[in-house]
Amino acid sequence: MRLVFGVVSDELMKDGRKVISALTHSAHPFIVFFPKLQRSWFPLWRRYARTKKDLYLWFDRVMAERREGGDTRGNVLGILMTACDETGQPFTDEHIKNELLSILTAGHVTTSVALAWSLYELARHPEVMNKLRSELESLGKVPDTAALVALPYLSAVIDETIRLHPILSECARVPTAPLNIHGHTIQPGQALVISIVGIHHNPTIYPEPDRFLPERFIENKFSNFEFLPFGGGHRRCLGAGLAEYTLRIALAEIVTGWDFESEGTDSDIRHDIAMAPKHGVRLRVSDR
Prior knowledge:
Layout: H1 2-5, H2 10-24, H3 29-33, H4 43-68, H5 76-82, H6 93-107, H7 110-124, H8 126-137, H9 145-149, H10 152-164, E1 170-173, E2 179-181, E3 184-186, E4 192-195, H11 196-200, H12 216-219, H13 240-257, E5 258-262, E6 268-271, E7 274-277, E8 283-287
Antiparallel strand pairs: 1-4, 2-3, 5-8, 6-7
Helix pairs in contact: 2-4, 7-10, 7-13
C-alpha cells in the first residue's frame, strides 16, 4: 500500500488491509469466466460487488488525501493521477480506480507466488543454484543494487520460472474493430481470452517446454508475443517493473543467505483467479 498507493496514515492503512483482503478473497473464478453469473441474484457476484464498492470508497479517501496534501510522489497512484490518455486528457477518477483494481487483483500475491516457484525450481536443480550463486557472489558481499538487478542469469532464472509457472494463465482483450483469426471474424466488443500457458508451453517456441532451463533466456530473446507473463500490448501490467525488481532483490537475498531442499513435488492449481502451488512449496531451510 505504501509503494502503490503512497498510504502513510495508520487509519487508511488499517482500513486498506481490510478492504483489499475482502476483495482478494471474493474474486471467484465462476464470476470471472462465466459472465451470465455476474448478476445480483448470484451470491458470489453479490459479495464481489459489495467488496469492490468498499474498495472504491477507500480509493476515494486515498486520492482525496493525496490531492489535499499536494502529494504527487512517484508511486503508481501518483503517476496515474498526473498521467494523460492518448488525447492528452487527464485520466478520470473512475479510470484510475479501475487501473488500481487491475493491479490489486492481478498483482496482490503474484510476486510472492513467483518467488515461491523460483525457490522450488532452484531446490530441485542444484546445478542452476550453483551457477546462480556464483554469479551473485561475483558482486561481493554488499552488491550494488543496480548491478544486482541487471545480472543476466538471475534474470534468466526468474523469467524461466514465470514462463514455466505463469501466475495468470490467461489474459483477456476486447477488440474495438472486426478481427479475423484463421477465417473466424471476431466482432467488436466480443471478449477474447489469450492462453498464456499455451504460449509458454508451445514446443515450437520453447523446446522441451516442461523442463526448467534458464539458459534458454540467455541464448534467445523472446518477443512480447512469445513471452507475456504480465500480459501484452499497452495493457501490460502496470506493476510489472516493480514485480521484476522486487523478485530479483528478494531471490538474491534468499539464495545467498540460505540453503533449502525440496520436501516433495508441487503443482500449479487455480487460487481465486490466479495460479499458485497446490501445497504452497514445501522446503527444508537452513542458514548458510
